[in-house]
Inverse folding.
């Protein structure tokens, strides 16, 4: 029996909700249970949005992410607000947008997601999907093919570039420190 | 079965399509707008009509009109729209019109915080209109799968009882994503314990009979039955009357058709009650998900706790609170609505833990259970003048 | 009224409970004459009513099917009913001035905007008479009522350059007319055309209330006096200046110029069902799928 909690948070428009949905959807497609709570409107206006994803091999009681195993901090505001909750997990952040400070709140791993996204997908907009690739490898629960399928279904017009971003994220993962 | 990964909103819409919803009318409001959006996309391909109303009062009246014309109808809103339903809700209760009403509760009062979950309409769903002299049927899902099943059930109960049924959800249930199974045929539908009750039309002339029976077809207009339905106290044939004896007969039918068939409505789910735990947590809707996790954690830590989760809210299931225990009611409000009702039903101490717009954490709940087990009061209830 | 009553009215509702001298019966009779002359049978028309004298007095008088809405809401109910009923079934609503032009005006205007197939007869007695005689939205300015003992202080929908029928015309109504209960075949012919319209028709029929409006507003219960005042309203030389200047007859006839709401909705729904329209969404990230819940099958 396992339960993994993933928190993705950043500004509106960074694809926080989409990343959460693709993660949850691919987990379900792989035969697991998943829940995803997207942020509510208040949070959107508060400068950060949130996807709380829980993946388990059995029924999920609470869909709340209280102690994330993985926290993708896509903005400084998100990092400041949630890094402490991931003290027992790992924080993925892009050093281009997030400064962890001298005493990081948790095990923090730099992922140059914007750069990888530009290189692989031709747009920094795919940084969320690069992060998702890293998350998938870190979780190591199911093959990334399921996420590729989810990308094709949910983003049919931009599937190919996003799949390139996903693969680049997966490929980058072994190089992540921490 | 087909399995989807989607929101409670989408699940309710799939349920409505399966239940044979022929008309949806609503008015945009966060966080229920997505139900209307899904309906506008999903209903027409299934042959159903989507009508965006000029306000919530019109929305539910349009649903009533559709139902009177023989269509199964549904609307969805949140608190600020649910109060505007008061007028048509009463009409539909009194004239016995089957309808399904979804309320995705958000934190209030009034507009409150638009997208944050709340549970402020527990009592309003019991008394959604003025005048008294009625019972209501209210179901409360706590997951995406239940958002699906309870919406199908709401359609069936509405038909059988000839009354509006509220599905009292909250923003986390409606906006949250999870996988849910959708039956693809009759057999799979039955496997989920569900049924689809077709719309029938009352042949008359006793459209409002003096009995507590259910499964009486509702009034349908335009079928040449000479039907009459109104907001006035009806005679059995639907004439408006000012006879107080007829008023009593009508009131008793509205009350007892539901009270006499509670077994068809009552639903709950319990965990860890087998060894008579000291502390029983009580909740409904999304808080119950955290409560269940917290009770499991508390038991792992050796605490004596169990929980009851109400799946149907009204009529209230008093008999669930007869066992000796300290009850801890957990709600997404600060005034304690379910807590007040449990206090009425239970003969033992009832404690309350409220939250506004955000679910309590597992740790907070376990702490509360521990305090109660030690016989200590909860911090919230020690000094009520302390606002912060 | 005898042969009309026999054919169309429920015996249990005759006689009605209207005050002696009330003009509503005359409006009711004109409607039934128009119904008869249109060849409409009891099964062809569903009759709805509002709240107030006009609604309550006519509720369930019709031998066919009947419904009554709460105050001002019967128009919204009729929208849903229109959508559910077959096109050939007619919907007729008898309502009062408070119901239509006050509490229900928003719904009424939206019915006109959508051109929902219904015939609304506003039987107007110049205020709230069933609650004892308070002023309404057609009560002439300056008139004394039980809630305006010093004379009404606000403008209504019939004076000061306003005409409620103009507003309804701008909103999209496809047939509008105005009569008084003292007019005969002319009013019946107007109501017939209203019933013939496939879209939204409204006929404004003013009628006298002797008990309240007459007694308090006109300071007379005398029928002769009240009739003279009504005639003055429609007269070119309205010398007394008491009340609005009104014109009787059809004020707007645009039958057949706009699609009827429910027919169009059903045709559109049918086309969507046949796969002739694909949903277009501005945000493919959020709403891409054409299937049911998001995407289709994610798991067999």
């Amino acid at each position: 029996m396992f339960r993994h909690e993933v928190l993705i948070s950043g500004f509106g428009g960074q694809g926080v909700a989409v990343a959460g949905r693709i993660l949850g959807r691919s987990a379900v497609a792989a035969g697991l249970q998943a829940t995803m709570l997207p942020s509510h409107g208040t949070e959107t206006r508060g400068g950060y949005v949130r996807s709380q994803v829980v993946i388990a091999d059995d029924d999920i009681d609470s869909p709340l992410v209280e102690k994330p195993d993985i926290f993708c901090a896509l903005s400084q505001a998100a990092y400041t607000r949630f890094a402490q909750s991931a003290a027992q997990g790992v924080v993925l952040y892009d050093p281009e947008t997030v400064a962890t400070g001298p005493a990081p709140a948790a095990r923090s791993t730099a992922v140059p997601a914007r750069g990888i996204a530009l290189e692989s997908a031709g747009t920094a907009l795919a940084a969320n999907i690069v992060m998702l690739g890293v998350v998938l490898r870190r979780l190591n629960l199911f093959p990334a093919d399921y996420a590729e399928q989810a990308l094709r279904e949910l983003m049919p017009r931009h599937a190919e570039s996003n799949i390139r971003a996903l693969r680049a994220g997966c490929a980058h993962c072994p190089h992540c420190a921490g | 079965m087909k399995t989807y990964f989607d929101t409670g909103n989408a699940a309710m819409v799939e349920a409505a399509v399966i239940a044979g919803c022929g008309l949806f009318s609503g008015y945009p409001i966060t966080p229920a707008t997505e139900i209307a959006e899904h309906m506008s996309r999903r209903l027409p391909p299934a042959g159903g009509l989507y009508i965006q109303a000029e306000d919530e009062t019109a929305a539910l009246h349009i649903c009533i009109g559709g139902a009177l014309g023989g269509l199964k109808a549904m609307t969805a809103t949140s608190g600020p729209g649910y109060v505007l339903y008061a007028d048509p809700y009463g009409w539909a209760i009194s004239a016995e019109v089957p309808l399904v009403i979804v309320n995705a509760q958000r934190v209030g009062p009034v507009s409150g915080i638009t997208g944050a979950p709340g549970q402020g309409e527990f009592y309003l769903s019991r008394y959604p209109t003025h005048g008294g002299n009625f019972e209501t049927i209210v179901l409360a899902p706590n997951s995406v799968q239940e958002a699906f099943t309870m919406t199908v059930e709401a359609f069936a109960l509405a038909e059988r009882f000839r009354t509006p049924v509220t599905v009292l959800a909250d923003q986390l249930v409606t906006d949250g994503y999870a996988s849910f199974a959708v039956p693809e045929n009759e057999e799979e539908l039955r496997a989920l314990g569900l049924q689809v009750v077709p719309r029938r039309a009352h042949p008359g002339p006793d459209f409002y009979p003096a009995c507590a029976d259910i499964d009486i077809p509702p009034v349908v207009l335009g079928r040449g039955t000479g039907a009459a339905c109104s907001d006035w106290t009806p005679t059995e044939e639907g004439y408006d009357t000012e006879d107080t004896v007829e008023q009593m007969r009508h009131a008793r039918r509205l009350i007892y058709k539901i009270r006499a068939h509670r077994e068809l409505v009552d639903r709950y789910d319990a965990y860890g009650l087998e060894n008579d735990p000291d502390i029983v947590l009580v909740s409904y809707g999304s808080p119950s998900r955290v409560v269940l996790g917290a009770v499991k954690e508390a038991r792992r830590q050796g605490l004596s706790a169990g929980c009851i989760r109400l799946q149907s809210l009204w009529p209230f299931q008093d008999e669930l609170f007869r066992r000796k225990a300290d009850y801890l009611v957990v709600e997404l409000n600060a005034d304690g609505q379910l807590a007040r009702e449990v206090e009425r039903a239970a003969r033992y101490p009832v404690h309350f833990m409220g939250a506004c717009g955000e679910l309590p954490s597992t740790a907070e709940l376990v702490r509360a259970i521990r305090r109660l087990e030690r016989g200590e009061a909860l911090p919230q209830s020690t000094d009520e003048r302390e606002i912060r | 009224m005898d042969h009309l009553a026999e054919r169309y009215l429920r015996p249990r509702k005759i006689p009605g409970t209207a005050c002696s001298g009330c003009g509503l019966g005359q409006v009711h009779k004109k409607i039934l004459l128009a119904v008869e002359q249109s060849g409409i049978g009891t099964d062809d028309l569903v009759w709805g009513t509002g709240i107030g004298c006009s609604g309550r007095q006519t509720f369930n008088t019709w031998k066919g099917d009947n419904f009554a809405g709460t105050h001002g809401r019967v128009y919204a109910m009729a929208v849903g009913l229109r959508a559910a009923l077959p096109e050939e079934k007619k919907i007729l609503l008898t309502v009062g001035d408070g119901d239509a032009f006050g509490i229900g005006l928003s719904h009424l205007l939206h019915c006109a905007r959508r051109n929902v197939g219904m015939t609304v007869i506003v039987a107007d007695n110049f205020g709230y008479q069933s609650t004892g005689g308070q002023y309404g939205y057609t009560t002439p300015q300056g008139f004394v009522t039980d809630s305006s003992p010093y004379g009404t202080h606000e403008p209504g929908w019939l004076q000061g350059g306003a005409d409620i029928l103009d507003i309804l015309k701008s909103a999209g109504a496809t047939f509008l007319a105005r009569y008084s209960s003292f007019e005969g075949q002319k009013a019946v012919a107007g109501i017939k055309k209203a019933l013939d319209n496939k879209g939204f028709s409204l006929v404004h029929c003013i009628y006298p209330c002797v008990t309240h409006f007459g007694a308090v507003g006109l300071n007379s219960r005398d029928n002769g006096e009240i009739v003279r005042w009504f005639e003055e309203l429609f007269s070119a030389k309205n010398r007394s200046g008491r009340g609005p200047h009104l014109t009787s007859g059809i004020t707007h006839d645009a039958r057949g110029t706009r699609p009827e709401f429910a027919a169009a909705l059903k045709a559109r729904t049918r086309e969507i069902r046949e796969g002739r329209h694909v949903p277009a969404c501005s945000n493919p990230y959020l709403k891409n799928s054409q299937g049911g819940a998001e995407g289709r099958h994610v798991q067999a």
